[in-house]
Amino acid sequence: MNDHLVKIAHPRLHPGLAMEAPADPSDFLLLFTDDTEARAQLVRDDTGRPALRVGARMRPDGSVVDEEIWTVRELVRRPGLTVIRLGDALV
Question: Which of 50, 60, 68, 87 minimizes the number of CB atoms within 10 Å of its CB?
Answer without folding.
Answer: 60
